[in-house]
Design goal:
Layout (H helix, E strand, L loop, with lengths): L1 H27 L11 E3 L1 E3 L3 E15 L2 E5 L4 E5 L9 E2 L4 E5 L2 H28 L1 H13 L15 H9 L2 H16 L2 E3 L4 E6 L6 E2 L4 E6 L4 E8 L11 E5 L6 E13 L5 E8 L9 E18 L8 E6 L2 E6 L1 E5 L3 E5 L6 E3 L12 E3 L13
Parallel strand pairs: 1-22
Antiparallel strand pairs: 2-21, 3-12, 3-16, 4-11, 5-7, 5-10, 6-9, 7-8, 9-11, 12-15, 13-14, 13-16, 14-15, 16-20, 17-18, 19-20
Helix pairs in contact: 2-3, 2-5
Protein name: Efflux transporter periplasmic adaptor subunit
Organism: Aurantibacter aestuarii
GO molecular function: efflux transmembrane transporter activity
Length: 379
């Protein structure tokens, strides 16, 4: 009985192995699935060479072309000026910006002027006797001498004898001593050299001002300058008098400027050259940040494309018969996002946007914008 059972199991195992082998053989003959090739759609553009205006971007902040820092050369109590000495206060040309109390010093000047007058008056009798021909001009000088006005220049000496006589009486030394005191007296008042506005005030009325102390800043708000640094490559392309477009990044407002100076020295560290641009506008303020666009030159037979389309510094992808190919180009100018290139024939189809994983020989299809069909109007 046992032998019969083992025989039946062996027969069943052989039959099962036969069917398993048959299924394995049949599975090898199944056709492999066909992998469909993916064709990428790309954005393209047709080359039309033209003259490209190369614009150099630069930026900087505005500084008043006419500005003065106010310092005191004398000591005294600050008395104010024609208007309140506060930031934002406007002054017209000739108005007193600063008045410092000069009462004590004024008295010493008047004393020196009186001594000069007395010393000249003391020599008049001798002049009448010894120099009758010059007596009248010195008499006229005394007649026009006014202690409340600026001391007039001494009469011109006609001879050495007269010069020795006048000098020996210390007239000349007394005169220049008075002029020196008058010059220092004028420093107690500071007048506006132009129409402008006070941008900084460091003292108030009643403050004790010391010699050398800074008092404030005064500017002319009608004319500003902007200093920009550009590459030395364009040093020979820029010219004084060239018009420059200035943009306010915050408000998108544009201004018209003019190149007024170009530094002849190249910065050894940055290899840049400094250009000064003058701009006039009532809406501008000192310290305002602007962006300048300087017209460097016109580049003929060139196109402007995205900078990321450049390969290996001098190559670009083109489309030929639905296949990508690579050609050599000549980049002539770069900006942050764009570049100007030459050397691409007209009507050449180039990529308009970068394609990830692109390679020469890659099969692509150009993107075509679908135009919406016009629906017939209903009656």
């Amino acid at each position: 009985m046992r032998k019969i059972i083992l025989s039946v199991l062996g027969i069943l195992f052989i039959i099962g192995a036969f069917y398993v082998a048959k299924s394995l053989i049949s599975s090898k003959n199944r056709p492999k699935p066909v992998v469909q090739k993916v064709v990428k759609t790309v954005f393209v553009d047709t080359v039309k060479n033209k003259t490209i205006e190369i614009v150099i971007p630069a930026n900087g902040s505005l500084v008043a072309q006419n500005r003065i820092e106010l310092f005191s050369e004398v000591q005294g109590v600050f008395n104010g000026g024609s208007n309140a000495f506060k930031p934002g206060q406007k002054f017209s040309k000739g108005q007193a910006l600063i008045r410092i109390n000069s009462g004590e010093y004024y008295a010493s000047v008047q004393s020196a002027k009186s001594n000069l007058y007395n010393s000249i008056a003391a020599i008049m009798p001798d002049l009448r006797l010894d120099f009758p021909n010059v007596f009248q001009k010195w008499q006229n000088y005394l007649n026009q001498f006014d202690l409340n006005k600026t001391t007039p220049a001494l009469p011109k000496v006609d001879s050495d004898k007269e010069n020795y006589f006048i000098t020996g009486r210390s007239i000349v030394s007394n005169y220049y001593n008075v002029k020196n005191l008058e010059e220092r007296l004028s420093k107690y008042n500071i007048y506006a050299p132009f129409n402008g506005v006070l941008t900084e005030a460091l003292v108030t009325k009643g403050t004790l001002v010391r010699n050398g102390q800074k008092l404030g800043e005064f500017i002319d708000p009608s004319v500003y300058e902007m200093e920009v640094a550009i590459s030395k490559t364009y040093a020979d392309l820029l010219k004084v008098g060239e018009t420059v477009q200035l943009n306010n990044i915050d408000t998108n407002k544009t201004y018209k400027g003019e190149v007024v100076r170009i530094n002849g020295n190249i910065d050894a560290t940055t290899q840049t050259i400094t250009v000064f641009i003058e701009v006039k506008d009532e809406g501008l303020k000192e310290g305002q940040y602007l962006e300048a666009k300087l017209n460097a030159k016109d580049e003929p037979d060139a196109i402007e494309v995205d900078r990321n389309l450049l390969l290996d510094n001098n190559k670009m992808f083109v489309l030929k018969d639905s296949l990508l190919d690579v050609i050599e180009v000549k980049p002539v100018h770069f900006t942050d996002t764009k570049m100007v290139v030459k050397g691409i024939p007209n009507n050449t189809i180039i990529l308009k946007r970068q394609v990830p994983g692109a390679y020469a020989g890659m099969l692509v299809t150009p993107y075509e914008e679908k135009k919406n069909a016009t629906k017939p109007a209903k009656n």
